[in-house]
Amino acid sequence: MLVVTFAVGYVVGSKTQKSALETINTLNSKDMDHAFSSIKPAEHETMTQEPSSQSLSSLVAGLEKKVAANPENIDQQLLLAQTYNELGNRTKSLNLLRAVDKQAPKNVQIKITLATILMKGEDKQELKESIKLFDEAIKLKPDVASMARMYQGEIRVKLDSNAKQ
Question: What is the pTM of this model?
Fold first, then answer.
């Protein structure tokens, strides 16, 4: 839908000075036909497909080399850890995130990423670790408090439901 919105907004928006929302709300079938006729079938398929795990896998080797060549680059390590997680290698992701957290203990993004991955599991210790990481993130950056507290509530519900089983 996002691709459709963009395509329609691009074609019709170039003719008017309306905002994107106004443009979408006032479209007629002629404008829609024109917007879609400018997209070739092959481009449409490419634009709407999700990246496959195979394409992510091919990027991992290159990213691993970059991280090895520049171990001080926290952003690359964070990206690699997130990629591991997306590919279903949770253990590798968690190991890397924990190591990077030790390397940069005041990096809020690492703490939140690690906490959100941990909270997806069922292990009681991991869930408790996740709550602790969110607390640390709040201390470092109070702006994340509302989001972190919401996640902590979800974790506590999960812990309570696991205790009742």
Answer: 0.66
